[in-house]
Amino acid sequence: MLKPRLFFSFTRSYATRIAEKPPARFPDPLLNHSNAVVTALKDENLTFIHRPPPTAPSPHSTTLAPASPLLKSPTPSNKNAPMPPLLRPSAYKAVPSRMSDKDIEQLRKLRLSNPEKYSRAKLAKLFKCTPNFVSKVAALPRPQRKEFARKMETEHATVREKWGEKKATFVAIKQKRREFW
To answer: Which residues, listed in sequence order, are joined to residue 50 by a DSSP beta bridge?
Structure first.
């Protein structure tokens, strides 16, 4: 039968200093180039290094007529060239034309004459504009607006009377919850 052996060591088992990465020593690209010509000047502590260009000059690549398309000046865009697709669906909608002052006056007269018949949505379709534009240009006077809101509230109350007990409870809970927002 084997007996376990216990070894006690009194030497340190951890690193005594933090490991550091040695500083990078990059070779000098001018001195280590194979074609570089190094000339040391005698009188002064200066060194002249001449390194020839990587390729021979080409008659086709000059600053006046560069071969690279990156160096060429931008060409005028072709009007008939296909364009990339638009990113947003709202960009496909045509910009609405400006409404004339005469049309705006007619819109206001219709809205004030009978706001129930000429609602914002109907006028917007009739004049080919948005309902928001109608509400801004032909806003109803405050008493008329309040009367209209009261009428809508009575219509909604008649609809609410037809609700069942469960739906009425849930809607009441939802309204109560919104009060605490």
So the answer is: 37
How many CB atoms neighbour CB 64 within 10 A? Answer: 4
pTM: 0.41
**In this structure, what token pair is assigned to residue 42?**
């005698």
The two tokens of residue 110 are 């219709």
Tell me the per-residue pLDDT of 126-176, one tens digit each, with 9 for 90 and over: 998 989 999 999 998 999 889 989 999 999 999 999 999 999 999 999 999
Rounded Cα–Cα distance for residues 143 and 10 (Å)? 97
- Count the residues in the chain: 181
Greatest alpha-carbon span in the chain = 113
HSE of 106 in the Cβ direction (CA atoms, 13 Å)?
9
Question: What CA–CA distance (Å, rounded) separates 145 from 129?
Answer: 21
How far is CA 123 from each of CA 7, 15, 86, 98, 130, rounded to the nearest angstrom? 97, 84, 30, 16, 9
Please write the tens of the pLDDT for every residue from 41-90. Answer: 887 788 888 887 777 666 665 666 666 777 677 766 677 778 788 788 77
Amino acid letter, 143: P
Q: How far apart are CA 125 and CA 130, in angstroms?
A: 8
